[in-house]
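Lab notebook, design round three. We kept the backbone fixed and only want residue identities now. Task for the bench partner: fill in a sequence for the structure below.
Input C-alpha cells:
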C-alpha cells in the first residue's frame, strides 16, 4: 500500500464569502467595504428572512448578523442557520450589548463570537473573522467526511474507505451468511472483535447470542470450565452447575479471542467439539449437542505458532476455513479522517462534550503519528482530547502531550528503574506486570521472556490478586444478546 497520504483540502479556490445582515444601511455598507479590502466576497441583507433566502444561493462561510432586525431577528436567524447549515459560523452584532445577551449568543444559541456596535477594534474583528473561517471550513470538512462515512465509509461498527478495508468489507459480506469458521488476524487494536461482531450481525444468527472469550486472560486451570461448563461438585468450589461458552452461545456465535494462547491440552478437546458438535461439561457423563458458529482471532502469525509447536496444525485447519487479515492503522492512514470524526461524534455524545471537529493542525498530528496501538490507541487519544476540549474544535494542544511526544516516549518504553532499597518482591511484581503490558497480556510470551514457567506466572498473578495488588479481570467473558 502506498505511503503517500492525500489529505482533504480545507479551503477551496477563490474568495471566502461572508454574508452581512443588518437593517442599518450605514453599518452594513461600512462592513462590506472593510471586508472587501480584506479580500472577502461580501453580500448584504437587511433582515433574517432575506438572509435565509440569500444563503441558499450565496453559500457563505461566515454570517455577520445584527441581533435586532425586522421580520426575523438575529437570534431567530442564528437558530435557523444552526438547524439548516451547521457548518456556517455566525458572528453576532448588537447596539445594546449586555453580559446576558453575550452569554445567550455564545453559549445558548451557538454563535461563534459576539461584538458590540459600533465596532471599535477592527484588528480584533479581522482576527476573529479569520478564525471563524478556519472553524467553518473545518466544520464543512467534517460534514463532508460524515456524508462520506454514511455513503461508503462505514460497515457496521467498522470504519474505513481505504482499498484494504473495502476488500475486508466485501469479504465479510460474503462469509457472514454462512456458518463457516473464520480466523481473524491482525495486530492488537486493529478491530478483530468488531469484525467478529459484524459477521454475527450480518448472519442468520443475529437474534441469538454473541459470546466472546479471551483465551489469554483466563488461568489454564479455569479455561476448560469456561469453555465447556461444569456440573455441581465437579471440582472444589463448583457449588452449582455452570454452562460454558459453547452452551451460552448455542444457536449463535462464539469468538475465541487470542486463540493462540490456548493450552495444548485444551486444543485437542476443542478440536473434538468442533468436529462432533457436542460438548461435555466437567463432571458430566452426558454430551450436549450444540449449534455454534466459531470465530477465532489472534495477533500472532498462525503458521509461526504452529511451526514452534505451540498450536495444533489440525485445529488451525479446522478454524481457518476463511482468513480475514486486518491491516495496521499505519498502513491505511487515509482512513484516519473517517475514523477520527466518527470516534469524536460517538465520544462527544457519550461524555456530553461540545467537541465536534478537528482543526487542520490537529488533523496533521493524527496523520503524523504511527499509531503503534492502532485504532484502540487513536480512540484513547481522541477521548482524552474530547474530554478536555471546552469548545467545538479540537486543537493541536488538546492532543498533547501523547501523540506529539509519542516517539520519544516509545524509546523508553522498554526501560524500568527502581530506587535503591526497593523490596525484591516489589521489583519482581513490577517487572512481571510491565512485561505483560509490553506483550499485550500474552502470558505465554511473557513467561518465555521472563524465563519462568507459565504455571509460575499464573501463581504469581493469583498471589498479587489475593493480596490486593492486582485487580481481578472482570471482562474475561462478554455476552451480547439482542
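Proposed sequence:
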Amino acid at each position: 500500500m502506498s505511503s503517500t497520504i492525500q489529505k482533504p483540502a480545507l479551503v477551496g479556490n477563490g474568495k471566502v464569502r461572508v454574508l452581512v445582515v443588518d437593517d442599518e444601511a450605514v453599518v452594513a455598507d461600512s462592513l462590506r467595504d472593510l471586508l472587501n479590502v480584506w479580500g472577502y466576497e461580501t453580500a448584504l441583507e437587511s433582515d433574517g428572512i432575506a438572509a435565509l433566502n440569500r444563503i441558499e444561493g450565496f453559500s457563505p462561510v461566515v454570517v455577520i448578523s445584527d441581533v435586532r432586525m425586522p421580520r426575523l431577528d438575529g437570534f431567530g436567524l442564528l437558530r435557523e442557520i444552526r438547524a439548516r447549515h451547521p457548518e456556517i459560523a455566525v458572528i453576532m452584532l448588537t447596539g445594546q450589548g449586555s453580559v446576558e445577551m453575550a452569554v445567550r449568543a455564545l453559549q445558548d444559541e451557538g454563535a461563534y463570537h459576539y461584538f458590540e456596535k459600533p465596532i471599535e477594534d477592527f484588528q480584533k474583528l479581522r482576527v476573529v473573522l479569520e478564525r471563524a473561517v478556519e472553524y467553518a471550513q473545518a466544520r464543512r470538512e467534517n460534514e463532508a467526511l460524515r456524508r462520506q462515512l454514511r455513503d461508503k465509509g462505514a460497515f457496521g461498527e467498522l470504519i474505513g474507505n481505504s482499498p484494504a478495508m473495502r476488500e475486508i468489507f466485501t469479504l465479510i459480506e460474503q462469509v457472514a451468511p454462512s456458518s463457516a469458521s473464520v480466523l481473524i488476524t491482525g495486530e492488537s487494536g486493529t478491530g478483530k472483535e468488531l469484525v467478529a461482531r459484524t459477521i454475527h450481525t450480518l448472519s442468520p444468527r443475529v437474534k441469538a447470542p454473541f459470546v466472546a472469550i479471551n483465551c489469554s486472560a483466563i488461568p489454564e486451570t479455569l479455561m476448560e470450565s469456561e469453555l465447556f461448563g461444569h456440573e455441581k461438585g465437579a471440582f472444589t468450589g463448583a457449588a452449582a452447575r455452570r454452562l460454558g461458552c459453547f452452551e451460552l452461545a448455542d444457536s449463535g456465535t462464539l469468538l475465541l479471542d487470542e486463540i493462540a494462547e490456548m493450552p495444548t491440552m485444551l486444543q485437542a478437546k476443542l478440536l473434538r467439539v468442533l468436529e462432533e458438535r457436542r460438548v461435555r461439561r466437567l463432571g458430566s457423563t452426558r454430551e450436549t449437542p450444540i449449534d455454534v458458529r466459531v470465530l477465532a482471532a489472534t495477533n500472532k502469525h498462525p503458521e509461526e505458532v504452529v511451526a514452534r509447536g505451540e498450536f495444533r496444525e489440525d485445529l488451525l485447519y479446522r478454524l481457518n476455513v476463511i482468513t480475514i487479515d486486518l491491516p495496521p492503522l499505519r498502513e491505511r492512514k487515509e482512513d484516519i479522517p473517517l475514523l477520527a470524526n466518527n470516534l469524536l461524534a460517538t465520544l462527544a455524545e457519550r461524555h456530553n462534550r461540545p467537541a465536534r471537529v478537528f482543526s487542520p493542525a490537529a488533523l496533521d498530528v493524527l496523520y503524523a503519528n504511527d499509531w503503534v496501538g492502532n485504532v484502540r490507541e487513536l480512540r484513547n487519544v481522541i477521548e482524552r482530547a474530547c474530554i478536555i476540549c471546552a469548545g467545538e474544535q479540537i486543537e493541536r494542544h488538546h492532543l498533547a502531550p501523547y501523540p506529539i511526544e509519542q516517539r520519544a516516549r516509545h524509546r523508553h518504553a522498554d526501560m524500568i528503574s527502581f530506587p535503591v532499597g526497593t523490596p525484591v518482591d516489589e521489583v519482581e511484581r513490577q517487572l512481571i506486570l510491565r512485561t505483560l503490558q509490553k506483550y499485550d497480556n500474552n502470558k505465554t510470551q511473557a513467561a518465555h521472556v521472563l524465563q519462568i514457567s507459565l504455571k509460575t506466572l499464573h501463581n504469581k498473578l493469583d498471589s498479587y490478586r489475593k493480596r490486593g495488588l492486582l485487580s481481578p479481570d472482570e471482562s474475561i467473558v462478554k455476552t451480547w444478546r439482542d
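Keep this in mind before ordering anything: The longest helix spans residues 122-153.
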